[in-house]
Amino acid sequence: MLFFGESLMIRPQVTELVKLGAFPSEHDVVEAQIEKQQRLLESIEPPVSDNEARELLKLFGPDDYYGLAWTVVHLVESAPGWPLEDCLGHTDNEWIQRLRRRVENAKHRLGQ
User: Fold this and answer.
1) C-alpha distance from residue 52 to each of 20, 27, 112 (Å)
2) Which range marks the domain in which residue 88 is found?
């Protein structure tokens, strides 16, 4: 799938994950769904493209979803253009806030 004039492909695994929707709370887990999401996430080899990172950010839910949210964090951070400033403005999501803090901490460590 091509995105708005860019030649980067979005891998089918990313598209399928996004179609499944944002991660629900750990309390609302459907075993078959989380198993499918885990398989899809594990099949994505980093680095992801910037567009894939943007898509993966849509997966964050209210908690760490048995560690799958951390898998998304690490995939997103593998994007060549990371940090993607246009993705860090959603302050109502705990995971976006966490990513922003990780960027700030990295800048601080690098003395920027």
Assistant:
1) 15, 27, 27
2) 2-109
Rounded to whole angstroms, how far apart are CA atoms 26 and 75?
A: 21
Distances (CA, A) of 71 to 66, 110, 112: 10, 24, 27
Tokens encoding 64: 């760490």
CB distance 17 to 59 below 8 Å = yes
What SS3 class is residue 48?
Answer: coil
Instruction: Please answer whether residues 44 and 13 qualify as being in contact, where contact means their C-beta atoms are separated by less than 8 angstroms.
Output: yes
Both tokens of residue 24?
A: 């629900």
Give the pLDDT confidence of 47-102 residue by residue, as tens digits: 999 999 999 999 999 999 999 999 999 999 999 999 998 888 867 889 999 999 99
pTM of the model: 0.86
Number of domains in the chain: 1
**Tokens in use for 84?**
């993607």
